[in-house]
């Protein structure tokens, strides 16, 4: 046999190495062609689920949809995903980012020019131990639902309400689990007092879970301790001006800068005082052309800078009831309304009400005093509706009262801010009454809650609070002239707010009383009230009664 040379053997070895290298090269090319670029999520899990925030739960991937069922006690608003991706891919939001999964959310995977969007839905699995699944708490006074959050991680129930709302609540809705679980409260009933320690316990299969109620009370309204007197011309300070010191000065109002009082003492006047402490003098509106009527001047009301006043006509057919307007304190009056009485039982002008802007489409309202020559069985308000500043015949609202016998003297109607088509009415022989825009009685506040002779009521809002302000004149008492403020924050609307006042809670809801009478009784019944906001939105409250003068106080937070 022929022997091969060393050269031949070497060449054969080189050939074999080259051959093997070629095989390896072609195999590598084939592998690259089998593993193209991908933009995929290959694994998805939540790593901080459960009450311990340390439980890992793997998600199920179906196409571009991923679902994860975490323990019921998990906080869906703060969960952290761990995401694995195809080689070279990137995802937004990134893996390891704590996210809100209370709603399905998208994850976008990119790899080069490739992109896929995955929708991830995280749900709570049914509980296996006792748990509070949901809770709704409502005010025991008004049924208003409070903001309630069940914190399953801290085993507490956070209840948010403001300091003007009731701390007495009841369970209006509750869900516990698993099926067959029960609950009990620290009071043994569904009513709870949030001003003291309270808790709720869920029981199931021999296990129990207690949740502590945590009230979060926010500030609201004003602080009555901040009451500041802006002007005091009251009997309580022995400061009643001589110009209004007798029973011929029966009507008054306040526009935010000036206090106006209609008076027949020694003539016919509308006196006014500036509340600026550097100005302490009485001034008078022009009375040019003001004439006629049983009383030439009787009552006065404000609407912005404008001042309105009326005469008074006794119950006589053919008498002219007049309303005058001053554009401002320097203006000459003009007659804006003349109405000739059509029967001998019409006595108009004891009290005047202005609703809206009578120069456009507002209302002028005059009560027909039932008695002393008027119709003793009527509860009438004569409503003059403006149309471009012009007035036609009045519409008569005859109130169908049940709580009260009748309106009585000095009946007034005031609009309610934010409650279009609803009004508050008051009078000497009735309580505060809610009316609709047809004069129908919606609700009468019981006398046991707010006494009769709560004159000229106004509703106002401030810093999240809603209030009712009025002036009372119990002229048979030495200290019978006083203003009051009632907290009516609770209630979805004004009707609910008034209905929420009860004999049991009025002591808590009545937050302020200011007596401004001078210690001696008087026989005249009228009183007035007004609420005007200053430039910073703080309420200024005006109070007046016959023979007792007036005061203006301001309240802040």
From TrEMBL:
Keywords: Signal. Pfam families: DUF4623. InterPro entries: DUF4623. The keyword Signal applies. Residues 1-26 form the signal peptide. It comes from the Bacteria. This is DUF5018 domain-containing protein.
């Amino acid at each position: 046999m022929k022997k091969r040379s060393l050269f031949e053997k070497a060449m054969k070895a080189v050939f074999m190495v080259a051959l093997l290298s070629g095989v390896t090269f072609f195999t590598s090319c084939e592998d690259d062609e089998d593993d193209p670029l991908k933009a995929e999520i290959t694994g998805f899990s939540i790593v901080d689920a459960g009450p311990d925030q340390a439980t890992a739960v793997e998600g199920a991937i179906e196409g571009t949809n991923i679902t994860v069922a975490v323990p019921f006690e998990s906080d869906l608003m703060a969960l952290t995903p761990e995401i694995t991706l195809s080689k070279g891919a990137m995802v937004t939001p990134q893996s390891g980012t704590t996210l809100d999964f209370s709603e399905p959310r998208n994850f976008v995977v990119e790899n080069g020019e490739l992109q896929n969007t995955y929708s991830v839905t995280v749900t709570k699995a049914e509980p296996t131990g006792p748990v509070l699944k949901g809770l709704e708490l409502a005010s025991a006074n008004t049924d208003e639902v409070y903001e309630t959050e069940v914190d399953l991680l801290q085993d507490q129930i956070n209840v948010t309400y403001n300091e003007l709302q009731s701390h007495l609540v009841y369970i209006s809705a509750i869900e516990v689990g698993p099926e067959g679980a029960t609950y009990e409260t620290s009071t043994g009933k569904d009513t709870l007092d949030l001003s003291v320690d309270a808790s709720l316990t869920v029981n199931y299969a021999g296990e129990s879970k207690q949740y502590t109620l945590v009230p979060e009370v926010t500030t609201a309204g004003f602080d009555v301790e901040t009451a500041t007197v802006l002007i005091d011309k009251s009997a309580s300070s022995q400061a009643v001006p001589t110009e209004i010191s007798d029973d011929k000065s029966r009507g008054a109002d306040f526009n935010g800068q000036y206090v106006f009082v209609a008076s027949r003492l020694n003539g016919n006047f509308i006196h006014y005082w500036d509340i600026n402490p550097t100005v302490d003098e009485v001034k008078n509106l022009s009375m040019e052309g003001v004439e006629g009527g049983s009383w030439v001047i009787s009552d006065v009301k404000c609407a912005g800078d404008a001042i309105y006043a009326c005469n008074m006509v006794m119950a006589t057919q053919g008498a002219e009831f007049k309303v005058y307007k001053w554009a401002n304190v320097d203006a000459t009056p003009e007659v804006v309304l003349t109405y000739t009485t059509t029967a001998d039982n019409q006595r108009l002008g004891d009290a005047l009400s202005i609703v809206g802007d009578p120069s456009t489409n507002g209302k002028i309202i005059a009560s027909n005093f039932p008695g002393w020559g008027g119709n003793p069985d009527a509860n009438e308000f004569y409503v003059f509706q403006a149309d471009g500043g012009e007035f036609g015949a009045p519409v008569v609202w005859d109130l169908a009262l049940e709580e009260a016998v009748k309106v009585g003297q000095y009946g007034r109607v005031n609009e309610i801010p934010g409650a279009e088509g609803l009004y508050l009415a008051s009078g000497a022989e009735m309580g505060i009454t809610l009316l609709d825009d047809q004069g129908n009685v919606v609700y009468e506040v019981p006398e046991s809650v707010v006494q009769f002779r709560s004159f000229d009521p106004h509703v106002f809002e401030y810093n999240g609070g809603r209030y009712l302000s009025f002036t009372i004149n119990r002229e048979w008492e030495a200290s019978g002239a006083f203003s009051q403020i009632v907290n009516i924050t609770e209630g979805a609307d004004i009707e609910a707010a008034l209905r929420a006042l009860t004999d049991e809670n009025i002591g808590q809801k009545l937050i302020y009383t200011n007596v401004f009478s001078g210690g001696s009784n008087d026989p005249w019944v009228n009183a007035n009230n007004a609420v005007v906001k200053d430039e910073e939105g703080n309420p200024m409250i005006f109070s007046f009664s016959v023979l007792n003068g007036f005061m203006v106080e301001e309240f802040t937070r």
